């Protein structure tokens, strides 16, 4: 029985890290289609514009034919349900992520009872990487290219050079 399951992986991806792309690749093996939902992020001051973040994610994931990239604003529920998603993917790096993600999953279940939250962990070499740390390392002149795709590293270097 083919179910054609669509999963949504939401985030700000400011920038997309190797951990993010690892989670997307894992999700792409499990689900028929994956939409990477790049959040407008009204509540955060991002380093990259929305368009830049979308372009980065598309460039990094271009080798995954069942992965598409879209932006969204507002509630994840409206985006996921509006696309017909049956799964929301959330990445867990460490135990410290779990409390917040567990609470978020419960709230999402209340808002969209027909959509399941699935937690995926990145490979062990990526579990310590966060976008926040990557931005800080890059801004302070460190070697952020270890933690992001080469396409993202180029954009990150250009962005930091502009400041």
What class do helices, strands and sheet pairing give? Answer: alpha/beta
Strand order of the largest sheet: 3-2-1-4-5
Number of domains: 1
Secondary-structure element string: EHEHEHEHEHH
Helix content: 40-55%
Largest sheet: 5 strands, parallel
Mean pLDDT: 93
Strand proportion: 15-25%
Q: What would CATH call the homologous superfamily? A: HUPs
User: What's the number of helices?
Assistant: 6
Supply Rg: 15 Å
What do these coordinates show?
The protein has 163 residues and is of the alpha/beta class. The chain has a single domain (6-162), classed as Rossmann fold, CATH 3.40.50.620. The protein contains 6 helices and 5 strands. It has a 5-stranded parallel beta sheet. α1 (18-30) links the parallel β1 and β2. It is globular. The mean pLDDT is 93.
Give a quick summary of the entry.
44% of the residues lie in helices and 18% in strands. With 163 residues, it is of the alpha/beta class. The protein has a single domain, classed as 3-Layer(aba) Sandwich (Rossmann fold).
List keywords for this structure.
single chain; 163 residues; alpha/beta; Rossmann fold; five-stranded parallel beta sheet; 6 helices; 5 strands; globular
Strand-helix topology:
Elements: E1 6-11, H1 18-30, E2 33-39, H2 50-60, E3 67-72, H3 76-83, E4 87-91, H4 95-111, E5 116-120, H5 131-139, H6 150-162
Parallel strand pairs: 1-2, 1-4, 2-3, 4-5
